[in-house]
Write a structure and sequence with these properties.
With about 450 residues, the protein is of the alpha+beta class. The protein is about 35% helix and about 25% strand.
Length: about 450
């Protein structure tokens, strides 16, 4: 597999490729790219969010999952009165209810995950991995079209409190080509370069985060920060199309879907769409996420998915660090929420192996649409033999209950057949970030989703 980085923004991919060019591992590249995404993709993700990764170590032949998702806060705290701010946000043609505010913020996991990736599989010095993101923070980043569209949709949250200065300077939302300026991130990343990512748990950033929690009535405590650990664990293993697929089980049900998905190779377009819709049928949900995939010249591979949820609307003062809103994400609130426990997640970074080794490393953004995007693209590559870019660009159909959302280009015969079987088909007028954001590195090439202005970069 050729060395490459695929990600949700050009600047993110370039940061990872820069590190690969200096001899960094896939872990080094993923850390640098993720930090860059926390500057370039702040409509989609952020440093105080949560994530999941999968890492293949070529030397040992082992693959591990890394859980760095958000934890439930409240350790060491007595009963506390908290309120969430209820908002209605337009999502496509629907108004979606969200709960945000300081009380929606859980214990951040991304910093712990980046530290764990680097310590376990990194090669370069930590400050070097922060440099690309720090440079972006100093220079600002141009806003691409898909991020602008997402910002317009999420404006009620993104322009709360400190966010108005960042995303709506002078009272006007940023538009395509405008420069996203987040000067506070310069000082934040300087702290991260000096103290490490774990500053969020036991350093300067921890003290500032706790101060904000006390001031605004948040739930995260000192005990929560001290107790947080990113956790390595064994991946779930399933078989699909003669391949060994390693992923994670979770709310997205990617593993379960691949287990029951029939072979698609050789099917007509109508049969392919019908088969996918039947296998993918389930509930719908919302959320903003980003994904990156990195492979180095030694054969190591990392896929990392991160998110802030919607974002709480609160920013660490003078640091321009947006707090996550995972406690307000109704799709994730499953079962008993015990302080210190991990929240559930849709994320499913995945690696598929054939007899020669890793064939495909893939992940996706998109909340519950993540499963549709990932499964559709993975099946296209490893079952139907499509080139990565073709598989990613192919129009998608996403079932949400009794409704099938379809991008332009999905076969009309297939859609009429679904309507005849009882589905309501919603034909979208154009491709949209609603349908997820896949980024992948495969033996046959790399690809990133243009629905979210994704990009691929390779080291020189």
């Amino acid at each position: 597999m050729r060395a490459a980085v695929a990600a949700g923004h050009r600047a993110t991919a370039e940061a990872g490729a820069e590190i690969l060019a200096e001899g960094g591992t896939a872990a080094d590249a993923a850390v640098a790219a993720c930090l860059a995404s926390c500057v370039a993709e702040t409509v989609m993700t952020g440093f105080l969010g949560g994530g999941h990764a999968i890492y293949f170590d070529a030397a040992s032949g082992s693959t591990r999952n890394l859980d760095c998702f958000v934890a439930v806060p409240g350790l060491g705290a007595g009963p506390r009165e908290t309120e969430l701010l209820e908002l209605e946000v337009p999502f496509g043609e629907e108004l979606v209810h969200y709960a945000v505010g300081i009380a929606s913020c859980g214990v951040p996991g991304v910093p712990g995950g980046l530290d764990a990736l680097w310590r376990s599989h990194g090669r370069l010095q930590w400050p070097r991995l922060v440099e690309p993101a720090l440079r972006l923070a100093r220079e600002g980043v141009e806003m691409p079209p898909a991020h602008v569209a997402c910002l317009a949709m999420l404006a009620p949250v993104m322009t709360m409190r400190e966010g108005a200065r960042i995303y709506s300077p002078g009272g006007r939302l940023l538009e395509t080509g405008d420069r996203l300026q987040q000067p506070g991130l310069v000082s934040a990343l300087e702290v991260v370069a000096q103290e490490g990512a774990t500053s969020v748990y036991d350093g300067t950033l921890a003290e500032e985060l706790l101060g904000l929690m006390g001031e605004r009535g948040g739930l995260v405590t000192r005990d929560d920060l001290a107790a947080y650990r990113a956790e390595w664990n064994a991946p779930a293993e399933v078989s699909f199309a003669g391949r060994r697929v390693l992923t994670r089980r979770g709310l997205s049900r990617v593993a379960e879907t691949l287990e029951r998905l029939p072979r698609l190779a050789g099917l007509s377009e109508t049969a392919r769409i019908t088969t996918l819709v039947e296998a993918l049928a389930g509930e719908d949900g919302r959320g903003d996420t980003t994904n990156l995939a990195a492979a180095d010249g030694r054969g190591n591979i990392c896929v990392l998915t991160t998110s802030l949820g919607l974002g709480s609307g609160d920013f660490l003062p003078l640091r321009d660090l947006h707090l996550n809103s995972m406690l307000g994400e109704t799709d994730l609130l499953r079962g008993q929420m015990e302080p210190g426990g991990r929240m559930d997640s849709m994320m499913a970074p995945t690696i598929a192996f054939d007899g020669e080794g890793p064939e495909l490393a893939i992940g996706s953004a998109g909340g519950t649409r993540l499963r549709t995007a990932l499964v559709t693209v993975a099946a296209g590559i490893i079952d139907e033999g499509l080139e990565p870019e073709v598989a990613v660009d192919r129009p998608r159909a996403h079932p949400a209950g009794t409704v099938v959302h379809a991008e332009p280009g999905v076969g009309e015969d297939a859609l009429q057949g679904l309507e005849a079987s009882g589905y309501l088909v919603r034909r979208w007028p154009a491709r949209h970030h609603y349908f997820g954001g896949v980024s992948l590195v495969a033996r046959t090439g790399a690809a990133a989703d243009r629905r979210r202005d994704g990009a691929v970069r390779t080291p020189p």
